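Entry 14. Structure prediction run on the chain below.
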Amino acid sequence: MDILGVLTAELGVKRSQIEAAVKLIDEGNTIPFIARYRKEVTGSLNDEVLRNLDERLKYLRGLEDRKTQVLASIEDQGKLTADLKKKIEEAETMVAVEDLYLPFRPKRKTRASVAKERGLEPLADTILLQMTKEPIETLAARYVSEEKGVANVKAAIDGAKDILAERISEVAKYRAYIRNVTKEEGFVVSEAKDEKTESVYEMYYHHEEPVRKCAGHRILALNRGEKEKILTVKIAAPEEKILRYLNKMVITRENAVTTPVLQEAIADSYNRLIAPAIEREVRNLMTEKAEDGAIKIFGKNLEQLLMQPPIAGRVVLGWDPAFRTGCKLAVVDATGKVLDTVVIYPTAPQNKVEDAKKTLKKLIEKYKISLISVGNGTASRESEQIIAEFIKEIPEHVQYVIVNEAGASVYSASKLATEEFPKFDVGQRSAVSIARRLQDPLAELVKIDPKSIGVGQYQHDCPQKRLDDALNGVVEDCVNAVGVDVNTASPSLLQRVAGLNGTTAKNVVVYREENGAFTSRAQIKKVPKLGPKAFQQCAGFLRVPESKSVLDNTAVHPESYDAAKALLELTGHTLADVKNGAISDLPARLGAYGEEKAAEEIGVGVPTLRDIVSELLKPGRDVRDELPKPILRTDVLEMKDLKPGMILTGTVRNVIDFGVFVDIGVHQDGLVHISQVCDKFIRHPSEAVSVGDVVKVVVLEVDEKKKRISLSMKQAK
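Output returned:
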C-alpha cells in the first residue's frame, strides 16, 4: 500500500505536503511546532490536519504490519497464492485483512473441524461440486463409521453441512456484501426488557430506525441502556435479500440432490456464523463512529472553553458554595496569588447571612475586590441570591459571575493541589481554583483532567485512551496557540508546551526559583535536561516579558530573529519602535516593497514573513482577547421569574448533537434544541454556535418540576 498516496487522497492535500509532514513527524517534531514554524515545508498545514494525518499514519502503518503478519502466517501454512497475496496487499482496512485471513486463522474446536476429523470433508466437496446424480443418503452412507463417530446417514449429512456452512461464512466477498447491505438497509431495533420500568430510555422502549441514519448520541444512548440492562438492542438485517444473494453465489447448478442440502447449509451459515459476527461488526463500526463524533465534539467544546478570554487586572473573590460545611472564600490578586481565605455560613442550616455580609464587606474594603466568581455547584443558587442582595447594599461597584466549577473538586483533592497549597483544605483549594479560572481559564483548567471539565456528551462511554489522546492534543494546541509566560507559569501549564514534559517543566520552575526570573529566551537552554531539540520545539511558545529583547515576548521563533531584524531594517524600523508600538505603517511599507521580494531578501517564506509581521505589530498579544468576555452580573434571576416570550442574554455552556445548553443566569441551564438554533438547516449545532459565545435567547417553556427550560435562539433575532 502506498501510505502517502492514501493520506494524500484522504486529506485532500498535495503529496509533497504529506511527505514533508510525515518526515517532520518521524524526526520527532511536535504537531504545534510543525503547524506554526514549518509552514513553508508543509504548505501551511494546520494543527487539526496534522493531528488527523498523525492518527491515520499510525493506523495505516499498523495495517501494513498486520498484513505482513497475515501473509507470513498463510505462507507458513503453504496456502499463499498469488491472487490471495495481491488481495491482502491491496486491502484498505483491518476488517478486509481479517476477512481474507479468516479461512487460515488457527481455530478453536468447531462443529466443522469435528466433522473434518471424522472424515466428512470429501462428502462436503461432492455436495459443493453439485454434479452428483446419486441420492444424498446413498452418498452419505459411505461415510458412516462407528470408529470415527459418524453414527448414521443423518450424522454424515449434518457434518458435511457444518463444513459447508463454515466455508461459506469464510468467503471474504460474501462477508463484504453482507456487511455493506446490513449497513445500508438494516435497522437498529430496541425494546424494553420491562416496559413498567421508569428510566431515561423510555423513548427507546419501542424504537426502530435505519442503521445509516442512526445519530451518534442515539447509538451511545442505546449502548448505555443495553449495558444497564434496561434495553435489548439488535440489528435487523434484510435477511431475505442476503439469503437470495448467498443462494445465487453458492448454488451454481440445478441439482435436485444437492440444492436442498446447500440451501440448508447456507441458511445455517448465515444465521449461526455470519449474522452474529456481522451484527457485532456493524454495531462496533456504529459505536466507533459515534465515539469519534462524541470525542470530536468534546474536543471542540474543550478548545472553546480553554480559549475563553481571561479577566485580567482584577482582584477576584472565589466562592465555593455549600450548605452544611459553609461557603469557602478565597481572595486572589490580579496575578493569581492567594491573599486570604475564609469560611462563611450564610446558607442552611446555619443561615448566618448578616455575619457573612459583614465578612464580605471587610474583605472587599481590605483587598479592593471588584469581582466575585461563584461556583455553579450545590448551594450556588442560594449563594447567588445573597451576593446579589449584598451588592445592592454596598457603595463599591462589585459584579459577580457564575463559573462552571466542573473539575474543581477533582483538582482540589489532587496531588497537584496538595503540592500547590499544602496547608489548605479541599474547600479552600476549590475556592482558589474557581477564582483563578475566571482570571485565566487556560492556566487553571490545564491542572484538571480534561474529562472532568464537563463539556462533552457520553464521554464515559468512549474509549478512554482515545479520548485522553484527543483531549490532550486539544489542550496542547490551545496552550501553544496562546503562549506561556515562562516566569509565572505553573509546571502543569509548562508541561503542555511543545517539546516539554513533566520533568523539564518542573526543572524550569526550579531553575526560576533558584536563579530568579528568566531575562531571555536563550537562558532557557540552561535548564537541566532541556536539550537543543526540546528548546527548538518549545522556544517559540514561551514568552519572556522581562527580556530586554521585545522579540522574546512574541511568537517569533529565535531561529527567525535575524529575519525579523532584517525586515525591520528593510522597512526603516528598529526593535525600539516595536517596543514602543511605533510600527503601524509596517504593513504599508512592506506592501510597497513587495512581500515575496522581502521574504526572499530576509531568507524566509511568505507564511513566516506574515507571522513575523503579525507578531511585531502586537508584541505580547493574547489571541483570546478577541473573543467575547463572560457576562458579569449584579442581579439574580430565578426559575419562577422566567416567562415564555422573555428575551435574555446568556453564555453557551455546552454544545452537543441535539442542541445547546445556555446559562441565562438561573441555576439550571436552558436547552436550545437544534431545531431552534438558527433559521437555516444545520447538521450540528457547532456549525452555528460555540462554547463561551454570548447569545440572545427567548424563553419557550419552563417546567419547574422537571427543572427544564426550553429556549430558542432563532426566535430571539
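The longest strand covers residues 647-656.
Filed with the rest of this week's runs.
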